Structure formats: C-alpha cells, structure tokens
Amino acid sequence: MQIMNIAGVMFVGRSPGIVQLLTLVVLVLLGLFYWPFKLTGYNIDFEKYSRITENVNSRSSNCSINSNCSTDVTVVAQFKSLVLRLTGINRTSVVMRLESTLHGAADQLPPLLQILQEFEAKYKCEACVDSRPSPRTVLDFRVRLEHNVHKLGLAMPAIVMNPKGRLGNQMGEYATIYALRKIYNATVVRKPVRRHLEEAFSHLTIPSLERFKEGDWVAAGFDSHRSTFNNVQLAAAGLLGPHPFITPGTPFETCIFAAFRAELREEFRFDDNVTQQAEARLRRVREATAQVEVEGAGLLVTVGIHVRLTDYPHHMESLYSVRNITNCYGSYMKNAINYFLQRHVNVAFLVASDDVNSTRSLIDELRINNVFFSEGTPLVDMYALSMCDHHIITLGTYGFWTAFLGSGTTIFPVIDSTTGYRYSKTLYDSAGLGPPDFVPIPMVQ
Ligand SMILES: *[C@@H]1O[C@H](CO)[C@@H](O)[C@H](O)[C@H]1NC(C)=O
Ligand SMILES: *[C@@H]1O[C@H](CO)[C@@H](O)[C@H](O)[C@H]1NC(C)=O
Ligand SMILES: *[C@@H]1O[C@H](CO)[C@@H](O)[C@H](O)[C@H]1NC(C)=O
Ligand SMILES: *[C@@H]1O[C@H](CO)[C@@H](O)[C@H](O)[C@H]1NC(C)=O
Ligand SMILES: *[C@@H]1O[C@H](CO)[C@@H](O)[C@H](O)[C@H]1NC(C)=O
Ligand SMILES: *[C@@H]1O[C@H](CO)[C@@H](O)[C@H](O)[C@H]1NC(C)=O
Ligand SMILES: *[C@@H]1O[C@H](CO)[C@@H](O)[C@H](O)[C@H]1NC(C)=O
C-alpha cells in the first residue's frame, strides 16, 4: 500500500521508463522482505535478534543442556538475579519457573545477559531516565527464549486472554496480549466469552479458542504488591518456559500497547450500524451549531466528554479512599472545558455518561454553550466520542478508549498516586503519552 503510494508519487505525470520500473521492483521486493519483520510505528529489529540467536546456536559450548558446568551456573544465577531486580518479581511460583527455564537454556544466556546488563545501565540505573518510546517492555525485548514445543495445538509459550470486567477493561486486556504477540512473537488466543468485547468487535485478529478448559492453563500470576503484569511479559518472552499461560486480573499495559495505536484502531473497528448511528449524532451537533455560528469564529471544533459515574464513586472510595468523585469532577471539568474554550472560538461539546442525569446537573452548573448529549449504546457513544476533534475524559477505562481510538488532544484527570489508583498519570507516563496529545489536569478533592 505504502509502496504503491510512493510509486504513485514518483510516476505521476510521466510514462514509466526502465529506471522507474526497476526502482519500483526494488521497492516492492524490499517491502516484501521487510514486511513480516517490521512493526508499524516501532522498529523492532528482529533481524538483529536472529543474528544474536545464530551466534548462540553456532557457539560450541561445552556446557550441554543436561549438564551443569560452572560457567552455566554463574551465568544462570547472574541472569536470574538481574531479571528479578529489573522486574521486581518475587512470587515464588514465578521465580521457580524462571529458574528452571534458565537452567534448561543456559547455553543461550551469555549474549542475552550482556543485552540485559547494557539495558540496566542505560535505562534502569539509579540516575537513568527510561525515555524509550512505547513499547517500554520491562526487560529489553530482545531477551526472549524460543521453545520449539507445541501444546494444545499451539506453539509455546501461549497466552490466553481471560476476559474480565466490562468493555473498557476487556479492550485493555486484548490490547495487552496484542502487544505481546507483536513484541515477542508469542502465541496469543482468547477464551471464548460472548460478552462485551466479542459482541462489540467483529474484526479482531486474535483468534478465539473453540474449546477452553481452565485446567490446561497455567496462571501467569499477578504481581499484587506492585500492581504490575511483568510476569505476563516474562511468560510471553519465553522466560517462564514453554507453557500455556492465562492472564491474571485485568492487564491494561499502556506501556507496551501504546506503540500499536494505529493497529488497535483497526482491531477495534466498529460495525457499520454503530458508526452510522454515531455519525448521525455528530451531524446533528454540527447542524445545531451551524445555526448559531458567528461570523469569523472559524471552523467548529468538537470535544467529546465522557463522565464515568454509577459504581465509580463507591469503587474509588472503597478501594482508594478517594471521596465524592461527583464533587471532584466539577472543578476538573471546568478547567478541562476552559482549556479548549481558551484555544478555540467555536467549540461544541458532545457528552456521554453512564449516568446522564447526574452528568446533566454537573454540566449545567458550568453554564457553557453548545453542549449536546449522546445517549446511544455504549458502543455508539464510544465511537461518537472518538470521532470528536478532542477529548475530555474522567476516571475508568472506557473514557481512555474514547480518546485513544480518536486523535487530537485529550485532557485526563490526575489522581494522587499514593491512593494506588492505576489508571491515572502513572499509566500515561509509563507509555510516554504526554503533552501535547495527552494533557494532565489535577482532580482535587
Ligand atoms: C571445551 O572442551 C574443549 C575440549 O574438551 C577444551 O579444549 C576447551 O578448553 C573447553 N572449553 C571450555 C570453555 O571449557
Ligand atoms: C543444575 O543446577 C541447579 C542448581 O545449581 C539445579 O537446580 C538443576 O536441577 C541442575 N540441572 C541439572 C540438569 O542437573
Ligand atoms: C514480595 O515483596 C513484597 C513487597 O516488598 C512483600 O510484601 C511480599 O511479602 C513479597 N512476597 C514474597 C513471596 O516474598
Ligand atoms: C514466530 O513464531 C512462529 C511459531 O509460532 C515461528 O514459526 C516464526 O518463525 C516466528 N517468527 C519470528 C520472526 O521469530
Ligand atoms: C449491528 O448489527 C449486528 C449484525 O447485524 C448486530 O448483531 C448488532 O447487535 C447491531 N448493533 C447495534 C448497535 O445495532
Ligand atoms: C458529593 O458532592 C456533591 C456536590 O458537591 C454533593 O451534592 C453531595 O452531597 C456529596 N455527596 C457526599 C456523599 O458527600
Ligand atoms: C433521569 O431523568 C429523567 C427526567 O427527569 C427521568 O425520567 C429518569 O427516570 C431519570 N433517570 C434515572 C436513571 O434516574
């Protein structure tokens, strides 16, 4: 596609001569050659990685897989302690899996150990700043072990997504395993559950299993003391052995999946009946504001607002001791709306919420013009908000998707990180999602 575009530009207005034709052939061949290895938006150098593994394989080692020579034992111990230090993993079952996998692959470790040591010195030392673009994997992504093992008819390691939560959470779980497939070439599949995600999207490329038996799958283990899913990354990298793993909890690893924003927009492509209803809502906003358009006010700028309520005030209070979210939203929303009113003359706001009545009173108090409510299904609202030029989101994961699937500027709320609430600034920072695209505004109590 890209190549045809390049060629199209090159040949415009001229009949192709032999030089141009040769150039086209070379471009097409280059495209074919690079296509399976290159990741859109992030250049993971699989070629370089294959060179490293070739070196490993051709190295004549005296330490065979089934024997313990002293070099192996030292390398395994160093490698293990470095991995545990970098990941913060201390769950006994995971440490044991790591240990036994490393012993079995001892002869492959020396070059990988060197990569890890350089990785730590560059990004994880005390004075270091991890400025990598997403995917910011917990270890250097080249550190992976291939296992020529099949189980359950799948190449190992495999990760099955166990859908938890509602639409926004499930999209995060899907995006996380999508990224694991792209980064580590891990096999990823879905547990068949016809709720939320599966009902919503018919273009998902990660296959759903036909049969699923819980007992076939190994729990990858959630690092509860840190609220991270580093275990799942290690599993996908093959460092926990050739096993089928099941995702724990609700992984929402923006740090790795933000790299695949364009591809995820394709995965989460809405069906025609949803897009048509959403587009009709946006058309109505434009028509209604066209009547009051002021001379010289410029093009209409639309801002999608999502206000998450219902169970959330209780959720935030009981789990994170953040009291009265409804009240906090008031001043946050005022600042967020002003951000756009200060920058554009002609602004319309399209609002969606899981509690429209409370949101109406909240917005009414702000006394702003051009406010419209989209009261569609969750999918129609998500698509309508994502199609707006800019976004204001509140807490929860649904709002994140209305912004992430769209473009423009997103205002998101910052909650005091000591509360332990994950879906706030830490999550955006860890993915390198910052200004001008993602602008944090504090939400004070
Ligand atoms: C490996 O074995 C060969 C022959 O047995 C020996 O000459 C060589 O020193 C050994 N290398 C190491 C690293 O132990
Ligand atoms: C190698 O040594 C480690 C610990 O030193 C042990 O756990 C492992 O089972 C040994 N492997 C073999 C194949 O003997
Ligand atoms: C893991 O570390 C956390 C925090 O440092 C600690 O509370 C927990 O007991 C540790 N777990 C194990 C299995 O060592
Ligand atoms: C990815 O894994 C498959 C097996 O699942 C293997 O056939 C393929 O060669 C791997 N690709 C890369 C780039 O490592
Ligand atoms: C859209 O159409 C599909 C298939 O015709 C149907 O399953 C789905 O429920 C529809 N969605 C909406 C929001 O109408
Ligand atoms: C939360 O704040 C709103 C708005 O200030 C107020 O009306 C409501 O009574 C408060 N609720 C609680 C439980 O404190
Ligand atoms: C929202 O307000 C409307 C009109 O006042 C009312 O009919 C409806 O029952 C309210 N909905 C909820 C969920 O409270």
TrEMBL record:
Domain of life: Eukaryota
Topological relation to the membrane, as annotated: Single-pass type II membrane protein
Keyword Chloroplast: no
Gene Ontology biological process terms, A to Z: carbohydrate metabolic process
Database matches in InterPro entries: Glyco_trans_11
Annotated EC: 2.4.1.-
Cellular compartments annotated: Golgi apparatus, Golgi stack membrane
Keywords associated with the record: Glycoprotein, Glycosyltransferase, Golgi apparatus, Membrane, Signal-anchor, Transferase, Transmembrane, Transmembrane helix
Stretches assigned to coiled coil: none
Pathway: Protein modification; protein glycosylation
Cellular component GO terms, alphabetical: Golgi cisterna membrane
Transmembrane segments: 21-37
An example Gene Ontology molecular-function term: galactoside 2-alpha-L-fucosyltransferase activity
Protein family: Belongs to the glycosyltransferase 11 family.
PANTHER family recorded: GALACTOSIDE 2-L-FUCOSYLTRANSFERASE, L-FUCOSYLTRANSFERASE
Protein name as it appears in the record: L-Fucosyltransferase
